[in-house]
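Invent a record, attention on C-alpha cells:
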Amino acid sequence: MTEVNKPPRPGGWTRFVTARPRLSLLVALVITALAVLAGSGVADRLGSGGWEDPAAQSTYATKALEREFPDSQPNLLLLVDAGRSSVDDPAVAAQARRLTARLAGEKGVIGVGSYWQSKSPALRAKDGHEALIAAHITGDEKAMGDTLDRIAPHYRGSHGAVQVKVGGLVAVRHEMQTIIKEDLTRAEMIALPVTLVLLVMVFGSAIAALLPLGIGIVAILGTNAVLRGLTEFTDVSVFAMNLTTALGLGLAIDYALFIVRRFREELSTGADPLTAVGTTLRTAGRTVLFSSLTVAVSLAAMLLFPQYFLRSFAYAGIAVVLLAAAAALILLPAALVLLGHRVNSLDLRRLFRRGRAPKASGEEGTAWARMATLVMRRAPLFAVATTTVLIVLGLPFLGVKFGTADDRQLPSTAESHVVQQHIRDGFPGSPGGGLEVLAEGSSTPAQYTAYKDRIADLPGVLRVDGPLVKGQSAYFTVLPKGEAVDDAAQRLVGELRATHAPFDTKVTGTAAVLVDSKHAIAERLPWAAAFIAIVTLLLVFLLTGSVLIPIQAVVLNALSLTAMFGAVVWVFQDGHLSGLLGFTSPGSIETTLPVLMFCVAFGLSMDYGVFLLSRIKEEYDRTGDHNEAVRHGLQRTGGLITAAAVILAVVMVAIGTSRVTNTKMLGLGIALAVLMDAMIVRSLLVPAVMRLTGRATWWAPGPLRRFHERFGLSEGEDERPVRGAGLHRTAAPPRSATSHDVPAHTNGDGSADAGSGDRAVREPARRT
C-alpha cells in the first residue's frame, strides 16, 4: 500500500514551539518585560578598566601600594594654570595651597600633595605657568565615580588667580564610561531605523521586516539582564555593551533572515504554514543552531584570558548569541504560524515600482549563479588574485605596536584628555605615569640607598624618588626619560625587575601593567587559537562530513580577517584618516583589541560560512554533482549573505561613530571584516577553492565517515548514507508535495515565486 504526497507530520520540536503560539508569544513578552526590569541600570555597574592581568606582578604591587601607601597611586590630578604668571607667584601659590587643603578635607580623598608642598620638579611645567595637585580617590570604580561627580564641579574652573582642570586616571575612566553610554544610545538611534529600512528593502514586506528587529531587541534586553546578574559576582567591562547591541541586532537579523526566507520559500511551493514551519526548522533551523554554536565557540575563547575586559566580551557575546538563536528558533516559528501568508503583507516596494517594470522573477538568483559559474571557470585566477589582495591589505599589521588604553581614547576636547596632553607636552618625565617599585622585607637605610643608586644608574631613568618606608615595606618612584609606555619605558620595567636587591621587589605602573598584559596574552593566545580551530573543525565536520572543508573554512576565515587587521594599524596606529574619523592616534594598538576583534570577526565569518556550506551540502547530497552544488549554494545564499552582511555592517558602523577610539576601532574594523568576508571570500574565494579541490572536497576516511553518518547534522531532510566513487555523500529521502525542492528563481530577498525557476520543480517521489 502506498501513500502519495502525504505531508509529513510535524516533528517534536515543531510541535513544541507551535502547539500554542499565542501562549508562547505572551510568555516571551512577559519574560522580556522582566528582563527590562532586571537589566535596568546595568551600565552604572560596569567598569571601564580590565586590561590588567589579576595574577601579574604589577597587579599585586598596585594593590599592596594602595593598601600600604595610598598616596603613592594618585588617580586624581588638578591642573592649575597660572596664566601669564608663574606658579611661584605669591598670589598663585596662596590660592593653590588653599585648593590643596580643601581637597585634603574631602570625604573619600586621601594622599593629597602638590607642587607647592613638595617643590618636586616633576609637578611643575617646564614653562613655569602650570603645576599639579595630586590625590587618590578611594573605593571601587562606582564609588570613585560618585566621589568625582560630587567634588569635581567645586574645583573645575576659575579660582581667583588660577584656572583648574580635572584629570587623572579616575577622571579618564569616568569620562570614558559616560561617553560610551551616551554614544551607545546614539548608535542605537541610528542603527534601528536604518536597519528597518534595509530589512524592508530586502524582504519587501514590512511585516516580515519587523520580525528580525523584534528578535534582536529581545536578545539585547535579555543579555542586559544577564550582564546585570554577572556584576553581582564578577567585574564586567562597559565596553561589552557595545558588543551586546551589535551582535544582538546583527545575529538576530542573520538568523531571522535565514528562517523567514526559507519559510517564504516553503509557502511559495503550496505548503500550509504549519508544514512550512516544520520544514524550515528541519533545514534553516538546523543551520541557525549550528551557526550559533560556531559563533559562541569563537567568543568563548576569550574566557581563556585573565583580563576581565576580554572575559566581559565573552560573557556578553555568548549570552546574546544563544538568546538570539533561542528567540529565532522558539519565538519566530510561533509568530510565523500565526502570520501564515500574511508574512508577505504590506509590500512597500510597490511604492517604488510604479511607472517601471518590476525585475524579472529570479533575476538576483540567476546573477549569483552566473557569477559562480564564472568564478569556477576561472578558479585558479580568482583564487590567486583574491588571496594576493587580502594578504597585501594585511601587510600593515606586520608593523603593529602594542600599547595601553589611556586618555587619548577620548575626544581631544575631553577635559581629562586635555589635562593629560598638557602633562605629556609640558612636564618633565611622566607625572602620574611613572613606575613604582615595591620593596618588601626587612632592610636598612644603607641598603635602600644602595638600591636607589643602582636604579638611578639605569640608562632610561630620569629621576628616582624615595624610599618611603612603612614597617617592612617601602616604595620608590621611578620616572622614565620618555613616554610612560613607550618601548624605552617597557625595557626599563625589565631592567628594574632584573636589578639586584637584598629584599623582594615588584614593579608596577602603566608600562609594567602593559608588559604583564602582553605576556599574559602571548602565553594564552596559542591555547585560544587551538581551541577555536579544533572546535570549529569538529563542528564543520559534523555539518559536512568532509575532512577538507573544515580545514578550508578555518584557513579562509582567518584570511578574510587580514584586511581588518591591516586597516586597524594603517588607520588607528599610524593615524591615517584620523582627522576624517575624529580621533587622536596614540601611535599604538591597545593590546587586547586584536584578540577581541579576531574572536568576534572569526565567529561572524563562520556564521556566513555555515549558511553557504549547509546549502552546498544539501544540494550535493541530493545530486552528487559537486560543481552544481557549489553553483546552487551560492545562487541560493549569495543574496542572503550579502544582505545580512550589509545590515550587520550598518550596525557596526553605527557603533563605530563612538567618540571613544577603541569602540570606533572595534565597530569600523569588524564592519570591514564582515563586508570583505561576504563580498570577497564567500562570493569569490570559496567557490574558486572548492572548484579546485573538486569532488575530493567531500572525502573522508572510513572511520570518520561512519562517525558522521551516526552523529553528523546537515541542512535538509533526514538522510540515509549512500556511497559512490569512493566519496561520501548522503541522499535525501523522497519529499512530499508540500516540502519538495524550492524553485531556483527568487525575489530580491531570496524568497521563491511559486511556479518559477530555472529548473523544473522535481516530481515528488512515492513512499511505500
Observations:
- The radius of gyration is 30 Å.
